[in-house]
């Protein structure tokens, strides 16, 4: 049925499929509320006014809102299956998302991307999957797969994709490297997402010549205002570690608010349960002083228009009937969720079922940890006088660099006296035996070791510890369980969580995953760790495109100067 067939219903000559009576329609275009009936047929909005329906629902003064949109996220960071994530966030009002699968792609390439696409397309939401631009994130990083322009061309020929995932390798863009520009040119007619932390001036100008449209790495009002002045959209990010909403709100005003939208980027399961998803961002924005209707606007029509999602994000004739019934605007209690005019969630519970066990389980995804034999000696720090140290910044993925000199003779055991831990990355895709060693200050571990197969974005095994023996057995346990997070102490495994899907994702329900992560976090804190999100923070210490000093399986990398640097200075 085409919209032409709906004309008689819009004119009031025929009954609509569904009419909401006595509701308050949120008009995100004018930031106001309209008290009218709302008519729906064939999955689209017919209009508001006096209408009759084959089904009529009296919502008794509740608000009707467009469904929420997450403009940029990595599903892998939720650590649960796509269907488990959907059953969590759809009842919270998220009906549209733009997902960049570069985590699973760095592990399993095209196989991983297609696995996500198959499952995501079988869920009642608007699933927009990007083609990752950063597999690997840089040419020197060691991932499980390489996704060049030729392979991307094959993918977009075989399947439907929304755009090109965040272009993290801004150095490759700025220097005109063919390996990244070939991808950009291939995807020039698609949405191209950005990753531009602290880029400004002429450097930002050059970066934007690639046709990049948005950025979620903006952390200050001045940075946001410059990027907006140069045509970018700002994805205000509120994840588990990176929380930029409060710092960016001063940049939003009556003249430029249409250029801001919401994104979660990376959010852990315990935060999804305790806080929520995009609904949490709206509530937080309201508490920080944003008018409720504007906060909803940022989460709906702003995102739709910025991303080029036509007929989404608003309540208007011809738009998709992706709607939320909300009790009140302050607490944002979501009573019901409708996708294409069909109820898919009510009172916080999903009304649909999808079982990923019905889909093929590719071995490259479910057996993805392959390490060479390791020894305790592999984690021994070489003797020296002065060391280059990663300086961790609380609740940030950016780091500093400092130089540390022992006041006494060299002893590894003295590191923890100065809040310094050993950190290493073990290559886990090709069994090359490569291990990069470093030191990090600020994590706070006082005993034992923590290892994880989640290490953005190449997802080799990252391990942080106070001694070599615990680091070794933690890494070996990761290999034994084919991915996960492991805590070892006194040469014993204390506890762990299994993440068998690409070494990134659990097959358990979100509640069980959240409970286990909370147990692991408590253990980490009892061992001295100070950071609120220790496992996600650790994962980002291996990301060599976010300043300043990071670590890969080839060693320490100076992101700002684009060179590997030595651990021992002298």
TrEMBL record:
EC number, as in UniProt: 3.5.4.2
The Adenine deaminase C-terminal domain, residue ranges: 417-561
Enzyme class per UniProt: hydrolase
Cofactor(s) recorded in Swiss-Prot or TrEMBL: Mn(2+)
CDD domains: AdeC (cd01295)
Annotated GO MF terms: adenine deaminase activity
Record-level GO BP terms: adenine catabolic process
Catalysis performed (reactions): adenine + H2O + H(+) = hypoxanthine + NH4(+)
Superkingdom classification of source: Bacteria
UniProt KW Phosphoprotein keyword: no
Start and end residues of each Amidohydrolase-related domain: 63-343
One Pfam family, short name: Amidohydro_1
Stretch forming the signal peptide: none
Keywords: Hydrolase, Manganese
Family: Belongs to the metallo-dependent hydrolases superfamily. Adenine deaminase family.
PANTHER family: ADENINE DEAMINASE, N-ACETYLGLUCOSAMINE-6-PHOSPHATE DEACETYLASE
HAMAP family to which the protein is assigned, alphabetical: Adenine_deamin (MF_01518)
Protein name (Swiss-Prot/TrEMBL): Adenine deaminase
Origin species: Petrotoga olearia DSM 13574
